[in-house]
Amino acid sequence: SVDYAGSLLDERIRPGAELSEDLPEVERGLAIAERAGFALPNSDDARPRVVGTAGEFARQCPQVRVLSGGRLIVAQPGASVPSRRWSAEHMRETVAELAAQGWAVAVTGS
Predict the structure, then answer these.
(1) Distance between CA atoms of 103 and 95, rounded to whole angstroms?
(2) Where are the domains of the chain?
């Protein structure tokens, strides 16, 4: 944050100056980690991977239905600032419509 950067930081990456403000969240996190000295090895293309089998996942997370060739949309209602968030009602309506169209919808966030 430009406004509340903290006084204990020894590295600062200014949004818009050293880091594009339009950078997707995952790429932003990778850039920050690299700046802190944690670069990915050249052999890692930074794509997410699922380690293990669907059966192992199902045993560890029984509350989550494992999709097999289905259609999945991940909805994340939260955002870093209120102006980027949809209203709760708009998000609810959108998720309901996607589910009615046959999509499996996972809602993430805290």
Answers:
(1) 9
(2) 10-49, 66-107
